[in-house]
C-alpha cells in the first residue's frame, strides 16, 4: 500500500471532506474511474489514427510472410557465425 500526500486549496479540501470524498475508498474509486476513462479515450484516439492510415501502401500477407522469411534467414546466418 502506498501513501500519497497532496496539497489542495483549503476551501476545496474542506468541501471535499464534507462531501466524503477524502476517504481512501472514495479516492481509490475516483482514480480507478479516471484511469478507465483515460484508457477509453486513448483507445478511441488510436482507433481514429488507425482509420486515418492510408492502406493503399500496405503490404499483402504474402509480402509480410516473405519479409519474415528473409529476416529469419538473415538472423540464422548471423547466429551461425
Describe the protein.
The chain is mainly alpha-helical and 81 residues long. The protein has one domain. 70% of the residues lie in helices and 0% in strands. The chain contains three helices and no strands.
In total, the number of domains comes to 1
Question: Could you state the oligomeric state of the chains shown?
Answer: single chain
Into which percentage range does the β-strand content fall?
under 5%
Series of H and E elements: HHH
* Helical proportion, percent range: over 70%
Compact summary:
The protein has 81 residues and is mainly α. The protein has helices at 10-18, 24-51, 61-80.
Q: Which key features would you list for this structure?
A:
elongated, 3 helices, 81 residues
Question: Would you spell out the secondary-structure blueprint of this structure?
Answer:
Blueprint: H1 10-18, H2 24-51, H3 61-80
